[in-house]
């Protein structure tokens, strides 16, 4: 990809710089899944509803999507009216994040155009099996909390989306590293991708409340566990959560900017988030004599309470975090740090 194209994307401030945590199930405590009542929307109302849909693309796919001197992405914006960008290249990391924001009509058409572009100029495959002729996989990033809406009871919704679009859909079970997003892979032709994104978008619009608090996947975080210069900790922010949007009017210029609360939220506002943590990981969060959880409370400024018993048959325990948006985000990041460290410790023990 040309430097000119990369500069065009970067100057627009359209880069994914969000960092987060894994293996946490974040809930909006005011909205229980499947119980939110809302008036039915018409297809026209859905089409004009605003949303952001992100996808993982490889570095080579990103180059095709952007095009020479940024021509392809510029054409996409002009034809669909969306805001679109690809995250910056990170050395030694293949993943980049494509973000498309606009009306559902524009976003779905934009993903159809992306699929067609990748079909017309297929990038060289990076391992794995080749997709069926006439199709190219699109890997959407979906909040773990919204996945149930897309799958539906007994898988009926995802079957419906596949039937009406002709696209094959595979939902990954695990959340991506250091995030609460999962991948839904769509494989089909360009029109099928457009139709599938339209149907998925309708689900996300209906269930938008549960998208709040999503910890966005950021490929940059894949660089974190190789030792290296400890000064790197000073330049990385803790978890930025939101409703999926990762565009910024003013790109971050330093650590202080990046750790600011997203959006125009009043810093005095107290928010509550409930987090389910696997029973066998609770001890590593609490620490000996409560030392670790006390440190997280002190460092973040958030109040954190822990349920004494499991909240359902999964055996998971509920952690409740209360504080300002910034405090809650820092608490989430620190929780992740402890969980990731424990996971790596156990993995190392298993290898030994």
Sum up the structure in keywords.
single chain; alpha+beta; four-stranded antiparallel sheet; 12 strands; disordered N terminus
How is this structure best described in words?
The chain has 352 residues and is of the alpha+beta class. Helix content is 38%, strand content 18%. The chain has 13 helices and twelve strands. The protein has helices spanning 3-11, 43-48, 59-66, 71-80, 104-120, 147-151, 156-165, 190-206, 232-235, 255-258, 282-286, 291-300, 325-351, and strands at 25-28, 50-58, 83-86, 95-103, 138-143, 168-171, 181-187, 214-215, 241-242, 271-277, 303-306, 317-323. The strands form three sheets. The protein has a six-stranded antiparallel sheet. Strands 1-10-12-11 form a four-stranded antiparallel sheet, covered by helices on one side. Helix 12 runs antiparallel to helix 13 (325-351). The longest helix has 27 residues, at 325-351. It is globular. Residues 1-37 and 221-267 have low confidence and may be disordered.
Mean pLDDT: 75
Alpha-beta content class: alpha+beta
Largest sheet: 6 strands, antiparallel
Determine the number of helices (DSSP H or I, runs of at least 4 residues). 13
Spatial separation of the terminal alpha carbons: 43 Å
Question: What would you call the shape?
Answer: globular
The multimeric state of the shown protein is single chain
Please report which band the strand proportion falls in: under 5%, 5-15%, 15-25%, 25-35%, 35-45% or over 45%. 15-25%
Query: Radius of gyration, rounded?
Result: 20 Å
Q: Biggest sheet, strands in spatial order? A: 3-4-2-5-7-6
Order of helices and strands: HEHEHHEEHEHHEEHEHEHEHHEEH
Helix content: 25-40%
The poorly predicted ranges are 1-37, 221-267
Number of strands: 12
């Amino acid at each position: 990809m040309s430097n000119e194209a990369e500069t065009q994307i970067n100057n627009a401030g359209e880069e994914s710089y969000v960092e987060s945590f894994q293996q946490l199930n974040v809930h909006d405590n005011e909205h229980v899944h499947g119980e939110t009542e809302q008036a039915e929307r018409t297809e026209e109302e859905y089409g004009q509803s605003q949303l952001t849909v992100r996808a993982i693309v490889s570095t080579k796919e990103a180059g095709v999507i952007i095009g020479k001197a940024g021509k392809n992405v510029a054409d996409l914006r002009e034809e669909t009216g969306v805001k679109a960008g690809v995250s910056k290249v990170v050395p030694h990391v293949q993943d980049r994040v494509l973000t498309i924001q606009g009306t559902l009509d524009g976003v779905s058409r934009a993903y159809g155009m992306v699929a067609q572009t990748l079909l017309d100029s297929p990038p060289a495959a990076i391992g794995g099996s080749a997709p069926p002729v006439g199709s190219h996989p699109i890997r959407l990033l979906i909040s773990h909390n919204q996945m149930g809406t897309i799958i539906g009871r007994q898988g009926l919704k995802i079957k419906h989306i596949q039937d009406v679009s002709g696209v094959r859909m595979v939902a990954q079970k695990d959340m991506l590293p250091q995030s609460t997003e999962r991948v839904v892979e769509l494989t089909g032709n360009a029109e099928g991708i457009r139709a599938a994104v339209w149907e998925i978008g309708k689900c996300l619009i209906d269930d938008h409340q549960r998208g709040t608090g999503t910890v966005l996947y950021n490929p940059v975080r894949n660089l974190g566990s190789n030792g290296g210069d400890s000064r790197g900790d000073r330049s990385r922010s803790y978890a930025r959560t939101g409703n999926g949007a990762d565009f910024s009017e003013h790109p971050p210029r330093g650590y202080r900017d990046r750790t600011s609360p997203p959006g125009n939220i009043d810093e005095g506002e107290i928010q509550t988030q409930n987090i389910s943590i696997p029973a066998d990981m609770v001890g590593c969060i609490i620490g000996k004599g409560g030392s670790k959880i006390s440190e997280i409370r002190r460092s973040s400024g958030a109040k954190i309470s822990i349920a004494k018993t499991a909240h359902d048959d999964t055996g998971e325990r509920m952690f409740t975090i209360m504080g300002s948006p910034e405090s809650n985000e820092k608490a989430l990041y620190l929780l992740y740090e402890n969980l990731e460290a424990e996971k790596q410790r156990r993995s190392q023990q298993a290898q030994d």
